[in-house]
Amino acid sequence: MSKEKICVFSYRDFDEAEYFTRISQELNIELIICRENITKDNFHLAKGCTAISILTTLIDDSLMKELHDIGIKVISTRSIGFDHIDLKAAQKYNMHICNASYPTNGVADYAIMLMMMAARNMKRIMERAAIQDFSLPGLQGRELPKLTVGIIGAGRIGQTVIKHLSGFGNPILVFDKYQSDEVKKYARYVEFDELIAQSDIISLHAPLTEENHHMINAQTIAKMKDKVIIVNTARGGLIDSDALINAIENGKIGAAGLDVVEDEFGLYYNDLKSQPLTNRHLAILRNYPNVIVTPHMAFYTDNDVHDMVYSSLKGCLLEAAGEKNPWRVFPK
Fold it and tell me: Taxonomically, which superkingdom (predicted)?
């Protein structure tokens, strides 16, 4: 039986390699490996393959055309989100797009961790302790169970956040297009405007679409409670960064926990300590004492990395075989 050839870009030796080696053997796949992000300078490495596996690298119309011209039919991203891939270009070039899945506990618990750290001023506590400043002024926190938490987006991850958060006893509000009886055991569905007006903490768990781009903006922030806490482990584009910065500086937003920011492509997962930071919003946000910024790490557990590799490779195989693929996101 001949092996399917898949070109893997952004291949990481320090965590993914063992899974790629084992899973490719199990699935009878030949891997073409590139440790760099896919670009117009290296896409040709995929020639002879029908599918590629990438991370959150921007795939625009021009790069999609190049891939189409060398015979690529499937692009699989090792992430749940796929907003870095131009779906209009995918339609133009008849490209199938797949994403990855992984257990929801990692991201869900990370979001709750950010809520707790933001509510307890943990960034300031740790920064002071690091320079042996053990004073108390400015560090008094808020007790999590007394805060109303608003969850925007109750998909798999959002539902796990709700279930885990229910153990703290918080009032939980939820906004989502689709309602679930399971969610109703722990939370109350409300309209968007009610959620942002009544929540002490707002946590984002929605995919990024054209419709919800910058759903957190100057107008919606104005409707929120004073000193509201914003947590985002979903996609940076859900928040208007300029509006967020203004609201932090004028005190409307009391704290934020951000695992994602706008325009993070090309920054996260790279060692840039000797270079100027080109994302000005990120440069500003990471310096506020009441803003925790982490580099898109919420997913990063051993279980999740394994499942991302498996679902990416398996999805490519299913597409090649013309079989039903649960990881296909385009065309639906």
Answer: Bacteria
